[in-house]
Amino acid sequence: MSYARCALLVLLAAVLWSTMGLLIRLLAEAGVWATLFWRSVGLVPVLMLWLAFATRGRTLAAIRAAGQAGAIGGAGLVAAFAGAIHAIQSTSVANAVFLFAVSPMLAALLARAVLGERICRHTWFAMALALVGMAVMVREGLSLGHASGNAAAILSAAGFATFTVCLRAGRVTDMLPAVVAGGLLSAGVSLAVLLATGGTLLVPASDIAIALTMGAVLLGTGMVLYTAASRGLPAVDATLLSLAEVVLAPLWVFLVLGETATPATLLGGAVVIGALVLNARAGARARAVEARRGLAGPAAPGQGGAGNCRGRA
Questions:
Q1: I want to staple 98 with a disulfide (CB 3.0 to 4.6 A). Which of 57, 128, 160, 269 is the partner?
Q2: CA gyration radius, the chain
Q3: What is the pTM assigned to this prediction?
Q4: CA-to-CA distance for 152 and 158, rounded, in angstroms?
């Protein structure tokens, strides 16, 4: 595919993911676990069909090839998916998605702790800047009684960071089999939690339809588009284009539901996005220099690579 077509598909994936917060807002009764179960039911078949096409019918072999790293990464996605749904139901969409965006920074820290990967000076600076933005948003969330929503958003970002680092540790090049594992685990964990707590899957039909749409169309199709197209783009370009998700998500809920973000949320979010853009650009320049010297390797998490499974809500 041409660069322009790949860029357009990544941007389309980001647009699909950006509507997730709006659809979660439109749920009438479904809580976190019922929503996660039905969304996973919509997600897994779409990804399985794509894997069957991409691997010429060797779907199970592709899932097995992800190995232990894919399984642990999939478990990280359970926390990421559940945390994202709770966050959007408990705080503003803008606050949630801006906090989700720190996932690459958390991945860089986790990769240093687990894999011993070096963190560049520009990434340390970007993380410090992002921490300032997070502090602004979390401080306001505490004053407004949104502490659980903020905590869930940070948990979600940490879950995606775990997913990223697990795939890197296991040298897994295709994220989709691990996302399938995450979808299956999400459905199983959701069902177990509902059974243990006396919850129910029998939510209104409109809620089930919304959750299935989120899984099959927004998250599943978005993942397929991003995975197929991002291979034809430099990692920094894919990362920056996918930030459209963070920018657009608050816009949809404002246009449809009239939900506005507070000045502190917008300020903190701008700081976080600025940190990500600066880090991505600095990482791209550093890797260009290394490439000219013949030293470039795979982009480390948080250092200009796509690094994180998108579609976090």
A1: 269
A2: 18
A3: 0.85
A4: 10
